[in-house]
Amino acid sequence: VLFDLRTELFRHLQTLSLRFFDGNPTGRLVTRVTNDIEALNEMFSAVLLNLVKDVLLIVGTLAILFGMNARLALTALIVIPGIVLVSVGFRSRVRRAYRAVRSHLAALNAGLAEDLSGVKVIQAFRRETARRELFRRVNDDYFRANVRQLVIFGIFRPLVEILATTGVALVLVYGGRGVLGGALTLGALVAFLSYVRGMFQPVADMSEKYNIMQSAMAAAERIYNIIDTE
Predict the structure, then answer these.
(1) Is the N or C terminus of the chain more exposed, i.e. has fewer CB atoms within 10 Å?
(2) CB atoms < 10 A from the CB of 141, how many?
(3) Using alpha carbons only, how large is the chain's radius of gyration in Å?
(4) What is the mean pLDDT of residues 145-163?
């Protein structure tokens, strides 16, 4: 898939007008063919393959939980709407952060390609200091964009973990009352808690993969913006 996409992107670049290349520096286009394609590679290798495993694991565990005790299973699932709301709320913020990261990385590569290819002109006109300052500013923008993205994800992942742990705690409280009341054995509660933890682990893993997916979606937008250019 990535081989075909990279080949198609390069083929399409060769068909575009000179006006397009006047407005898009070489370094920015190189970023599309290399870094952005690589972001998609990470999604295919780290997300899609494991996503099937995680979904099957969650569905299978839910079937076991409902087979053991439907009420306790529903208690564990109370936190799922909260996880969904957190994911939806952070989706647009994460996507904007990754768009900014991709944009600043393209600007960084564009400036670097121009400076290295035009180094003779820069030295002839003694513009080294000015170009270093410009590169420092662009690099600083890229650094800050990465920090913003990390801060957003640094809030999102712990929230998911807290909600998942809350689900386990609810099962422990509700199931503990059942054990004290004689409606549930201690062994059944321990087994149930193990399955609940097993169910929430892939949920937490999927929140990690959600971050990779948002990065890939931002990269895909930039790739297809070029492919869709007449």
Answers:
(1) C
(2) 16
(3) 25
(4) 90
SS (H, E, C) the chain: CHHHHHHHHHHHHCCCCHHHHHHCCHHHHHHHHHHHHHHHHHHHHHHHHHHHHHHHHHHHHHHHHHHHCHHHHHHHHHHHHHHHHHHHHHHHHHHHHHHHHHHHHHHHHHHHHHHHHCHHHHHHCCCHHHHHHHHHHHHHHHHHHHHHHHHHHHHHHHHHHHHHHHHHHHHHHHHHHHHHHCCCCHHHHHHHHHHHHHHHHHHHHHHHHHHHHHHHHHHHHHHHHHHCCC
CA 151 to chain centre: 13
- Whole-number pLDDT of residue 20: 93
Structure tokens belonging to residue 46: 């780290």
Q: Is 131 a residue whose pLDDT tops 90? A: yes
Let me know: does 168 contact 197? Beta carbons within 8 Å. Answer: yes
Of 82, 53, 88, the closest CA to residue 198 belongs to 53
Q: Measured between alpha carbons, how far apart are the two ends of the chain, in Å?
A: 23
Highest mean pLDDT among 73-82, 97-106, 108-117, 137-146: 137-146
pLDDT given at position 134: 95
Distance between CA atoms of 203 and 211, rounded to whole angstroms? 13
Q: How many CB atoms lie within 10 A of CB 46?
A: 15
